[in-house]
Amino acid sequence: MRRLFWLAMGVTIGALVVRKLSAAAEKMTPQGIAGSIVEGLRDLADAIGEFGADVRAAAEAREGELRSGTGLDAPLPERGAVELPGRHSAPHADR
User: Fold this and answer.
1) Is residue 32 exposed (0-12), middle (13-18) or buried (19+ Cβ within 10 Å)?
2) 67, 73 contact by CB (below 8 A)
3) Which of 63, 80, 81 is nearest to 72 (CA)?
4) What is the rounded CA–CA span in Å between residue 91 and residue 95?
5) Any idea what DSSP says for residue 85?
6) Rounded CA gap, 59 and 20, in Å?
7) Residues 61-92: tens digit of each pLDDT
8) How far apart are CA 51 and CA 59, in angstroms?
9) Which residue, among 15, 12, 34, 33, has the nearest Cα to 24 in the 3D structure?
10) What does the pLDDT read at residue 21?
11) Do residues 26 and 32 make contact, with C-beta atoms less than 8 angstroms apart?
C-alpha cells in the first residue's frame, strides 16, 4: 500500500513538473514572447486609461470646489441692479 501511495505521488509530481516546464518552454517561443508583450501593452494601456479617468475626476471635483468658493455658479443679477465702478446710472449732460 505504501509503494502504491509513493508511486501515485511521484506520478503526480512528475506530471506537474512536466506541465510547468512545458509552459515555461512555450513562453520562450516567438509566439509566447509576442503574447507576453501584447499582454504587457494591454495592461499598460488599461493603467493609463485608469490614470486619465482619475485625473479627470479629480479635476472636476476641484473645479466644483473653486466654482463654489468664488461664486461662479451663482445666478447673474438682473440688468440695472448692480452699478459697475466708473459708470453712473444717469447719463451726463456733457456727453
Assistant:
1) middle
2) yes
3) 63
4) 8
5) T
6) 47
7) 999 999 888 877 777 778 777 777 775 655 55
8) 12
9) 33
10) 93
11) yes
The secondary structure of 22-75 as a DSSP string is HHHHHHTSHHHHHHHHHHHHHHHHHHHHHHHHHHHHHHHHHHHHHHHHHTTTSP
Whether residue 89 contacts residue 81, with contact meaning beta carbons closer than 8 Å, is answered with no
Contact by Cβ (8 Å): 83, 89 = yes
Q: Per-residue pLDDT tens for 38-63?
A: 999 999 999 999 999 999 999 999 99
Cell of 77: 443679477
Place of cell 466708473: 86
CA 59-64-70 angle, to 5 degrees, is 120
pTM: 0.49
DSSP-derived letter for residue 87 is: -
Task: For residue 80, give the C-alpha cell.
Answer: 440695472
